[in-house]
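Kindly review these tokens for lecture notes.

. . .
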Amino acid sequence: MNIALIGLGTNLGDRPTNLQSALDQLAHHPSCELLARSSIYQSAPMGPQDQPDFLNMACQLQTSLQPLQLLELCKQLEADLGRLPGERWGPRLIDLDILLFGEQFLQQDELSIPHPGLSERAFVLLPLTELVPGWRVPGCNKTVQQLAASCSSDDISRWKPGTES
């Protein structure tokens, strides 16, 4: 069995429901067991600013899948939940990214682990610090907590239910 950390994000529709639906789908997949989930964080969009804020979180899975199989599952779940192809860093109904997969360092055309940009993204690192603060990130020899401490978190806050617009 493998341990994987998945990042979830959404900025369209009923954002909390989008996150919960994705978590439910992952948790009920026969090859996955949901071990833990982080709090939800709200952040400004990373790309074009003329779009709603994102809600982001992370979850920890135990899975019998290999990285490319897990990527395929994530893409299928995104499609099942209604995600349509769109512009890079544009608005999205749901986004599922493999952030870390065991101690693997993987660089392939279709998948890179750790996820590219992980070390500079507070909206990924803050949720991960709740789950695996001492996890040493392959390829950079720093822990998740060390990376989070060196990352600006000015545009991110813990989301509070009932603050939906």
Notes: The chain has a mean pLDDT of 90. DSSP finds four helices and ten strands in the chain.
